[in-house]
Task: structure prediction
Amino acid sequence: MKFSRRSFFGILPGAALGGKQAAAALAAEAEKLAGVQALGASDTPYPQPSAVQVAVESSKWAAARLDQFFRPAERARRWDQTSVNHLDPDLVSMRSMSLSARMTIQKQRNFDRHEMGERSYLEGVIAGIFD
Result:
């Protein structure tokens, strides 16, 4: 039998009518002709972790990250990495303040926003909201 894409898709709907054995035979033939191994084979080189294992590991990682999140050295490092690329509109309109004061206020806002987002994400991973 000549095996091409068109003939494969032409036979495929008939496999459901022929029963499980016909579908298994068709899959074995397609696998043999393609020269690949079917997905989910028992001799896969890497064990697939279960969803529970992944959730537990990510929860442990998030708890450790949240634990070090508020250490003074970590906060100082994040403060140094915080940059100001723009000013919020309310700070732009404050003409009586110096530019450096407005930049400092904007840096604090950026730092707080990032910290709040990171903390809520880590707490969500621990709670199981984000998988």
